[in-house]
Amino acid sequence: MILDEPGTFLQRTPPAWLGTGLQAGGAWLCAAGVPLPVLNPERPKLLYVRRTEGE
Predict the structure, then answer these.
(1) Integer Cα distance of 55 and 43 in angstroms
(2) I need a labelling partner for 41 at 20 to 30 A (CA). Which of 3, 6, 32, 54 fits?
(3) SS3 at position 39
């Protein structure tokens, strides 16, 4: 998906982590969560979450 494609997002700019990725611990994710981009209904986004050992 091209992030600056017109009509992709309903918000002005996507969350900063969307372009760079995000690494966080489970406790932090449970407390804070992850801000998701506000997308147009016809523009789905699939997120890939992976657990890493020892981090």
Answers:
(1) 33
(2) 32
(3) strand
Residue 2: pLDDT over 50: no
Tens of pLDDT, residues 19-50 = 888 888 888 888 988 888 887 777 787 888 88
The DSSP code sequence of the chain is: --TTSTTSBSSSS--THHHH-----HHHHHHH--PPP-B-TT----------TT-
Query: How many whole angstroms separate alpha carbon 45 and alpha carbon 55?
Result: 26
Taking a C-beta distance cutoff of 8 angstroms, is the pair 20, 3 a contact? Answer: no
Pair of tokens at residue 30: 């449970």
Q: Are the CB atoms for 11 and 38 separated by under 8 Å? A: yes
Q: What is the pLDDT of residue 38?
A: 80
